[in-house]
């Protein structure tokens, strides 16, 4: 019985059993008079020989002279195969490299591209190319690619802020001056620890063997605590005076300067000058820097004088990004003393005082330390609004920010175009003990509504404002889509709403309209065993949430 050859049960392509002949019965004819002639290829075949399918099609010299009859000959190119590549326009080369390495961001671009939710570009999280060694190999493709690849490699440099590293980098660029113009973003990071035992081998994590201490005893001694790995405060860090002199002399085309102060318990502050005892010192002036990014800003700027020292050395500075590693009262107090006195040329501001996006059962203790100093951060922050164009802020804020900003602004001269606020909590009176956050805390929802209402009232004075975003983020929420938010973009409104907010907007911004005004929560939000049950899959947040709907989520119900 033979198996039918069908798609479901394919049959064998050859007989299942073949009788093999003995080797002595196999006869091989030896024809010494002639050669084995291969079958003639059809005339429709584009290649004269079968092996010409692979390799260079133009290599007709591989054919025998006797077989060249009737075959059209083509001139063989003697130039390098990269000559045609070099003749392409530079824009084509850039597109090819952008496809391979990713589109490079312009150092002069301050705002994000269209469709992004961020108003200002987050230079604080900008990273260099992750595959720098592999990218360096592309510089060997052609002379034109060498410059384009080096432009991408040296576009963003990160250098350790120690005396030896700064000196080594300075010597390198003095020996290769053609690379200096490629640097557009220079980043200096200052270590907060220094190895105390210099003979310790960091790769092995055991003491380096010596004559008195053989290799076999290293691990045992380390486990016994005789040779522990200890660190101390750094003693070889450069000062800002050294950094500014290095950047000013070496990188004339640099537009972005990043200073990373690091973080640790009781961190050391980066020295501004080599000899701080001399009064009246100034940092070297850098004319090209227009964007300043401070990571771990508490170790770099702790007072208004510290910022003024840096700002005086950057006369063309118009964008400042400040990021604090940990929330603390001193950070709010330091910024409250600095923000009211920003230079007039600084128009873009991005400050992040707290980056822990989790709800609070009650405000931490450092918040009460701020109120004890009789300094209201929101009021001080509002004093910077009249000269700013774009503002992004992450931290604690209340309605006083918008109320005071409206009082200090003039609708005819206001330059503020966008505000992006990520709210950690809303300031409330100090005697309130339950000043937590979350969608089940109705007091927080009402305070958030007052913040949005104050923003709506200020729109008549902030006439140039076309983008306003106020967001609360809770990473622990079971239903993150219900986190309160409010957004105004090109007179289109989304987020929380109430009758009072709508009436205020009709008076201050008549052209603004909500895309929708839902009166109830989405159907896939319910309760089970006293807990909120969200949708099984991630869903997009609703276009509108009525404030009164949050009442059904409060009343002591917790989210897990």
Question: Would you give an account of this structure?
Answer:
- The chain is an alpha/beta fold and 560 residues long.
- It contains 14 helices and 19 strands.
- It has helices at 83-86, 90-101, 132-137, 143-153, 163-175, 218-223, 240-250, 304-313, 329-338, 365-372, 377-382, 400-408, 442-457, 499-508; strands at residues 156-160, 185-189, 194-195, 200-201, 206-207, 231-232, 256-260, 291-295, 319-323, 348-352, 390-397, 418-426, 467-472, 485-489, 492-497, 513-514, 526-528, 531-533, 544-546.
- The strands form 4 sheets. Strands 1, 2, 7, 8, 9, 10, 11, 12, 13, 14, 15, 16 and 19 form a 13-stranded mixed sheet that branches. A two-stranded antiparallel ribbon has the order 3-6.
- β15 (492-497), α14 (499-508) and β16 form a beta-alpha-beta unit.
- The longest helix has 16 residues, at 442-457.
- It is globular, with a radius of gyration of 35 Å.
- The two termini are 66 Å apart.
- Residues 1-18, 26-31, 50-63, 71-79, 113-118, 221-226 and 556-560 have low confidence and may be disordered.
The amount of beta strand, in percent, is 5-15%
Count of individual helical segments: 14
- Helical content, roughly? 10-25%
Number of strands: 19
Structural class: alpha/beta
Question: What integer is the average pLDDT?
Answer: 78
What kind of sheet is the major sheet?
Answer: 13 strands, mixed
Computed Rg: 35 Å
What characteristic shape results from the CA principal axes? globular
What is the terminal separation in angstroms? Answer: 66 Å
Low-confidence stretches: 1-18, 26-31, 50-63, 71-79, 113-118, 221-226, 556-560
